[in-house]
Amino acid sequence: MIPQSFPDNRAVVARCADLTRLFGADGATVAAVDRITTEFRRGELTAVVGPSGSGKSTLMYLLAGLDAPTWGDVELDGYLLTDLDEPELAALRHERMGFIFQSFNLLPGLTAMENIRLPETLGRRRRPHDEPWLQQLIERLGLTELLARRPHELSGGQQQRVAIARALAHRPAVVFADEPTGNLDLATGGEVLDLLTELAHESGCGIIMVTHDPRAASAADRVLSIRDGHLVAELGRASAGEIAALMLADAIDAGATR
Ligand code: ADP
Ligand code: MG
Fold first, then answer.
1. Could you say which of 12, 13, 137, 246 is the most buried, measured as most Cβ atoms within 10 Å of its Cβ?
2. What is the C-alpha to C-alpha distance for residues 28 and 5, in angstroms, rounded to an integer?
3. What is the number of the ligand closest to the CA of 53?
4. Smallest CA separation from ligand 1 atom 18, residue
């Protein structure tokens, strides 16, 4: 692995400074992410909340090195992403990041266990799994009895728990989750989010979740509210009602200044 630029950064898993991503040519430029400076801590679930089009996915792609900023910097797990070339970024994603998607993204022909082990199987340079950790994770997610099933034999909540096991199996430093409960009913989504928050606390990884849903964000340790690419507010633990009120107040402010 490439040497870290900032190896002693214990509490912070990712930070960005003046992070900006413009799309389009001169006349019609959109700032999808507009001068965002913030930090994401290890052992915490941080929710990035905002309405559709506010820049959540773009921010996530920039933090994961899947897109490059127009200007500004991202430091992730001690690496300054602009220092890395494409193969180094790919290796960093493979070894130090996990991803959870709205649509679960499991391979239909593989069992739950084969899906969980797939990244390791494909592994170029990924370390072999820490087996005791993997067993603990599988038990923690209630998957022990389900490992031989294929995705079509699992409920939505069970499929997402398999996807969470896959994302955390290699003990990543950071896990990105894009609307992880978007395809789940309210009760199932709530259970999945509580598990994600507990796993962040127990494993020490930083989980960064983007969502438009204040109820989902209420499971987080910290909530960042973004609108039109700007970071407009930062909260600690908050109720769905408080987060919804904050998003509404931002929307009214935005309307008033247009
Ligand atoms: P969210 O995930 O919050 O819905 P996005 O990050 O997808 O928001 O998009 C933020 C803004 O950037 C939107 O105005 C969107 O149209 C624009 N945008 C995102 N990706 C691109 C792209 N590849 N090309 C042009 N505009 C884009
Ligand atoms: Mg999005």
1. 13
2. 36
3. 1
4. 32
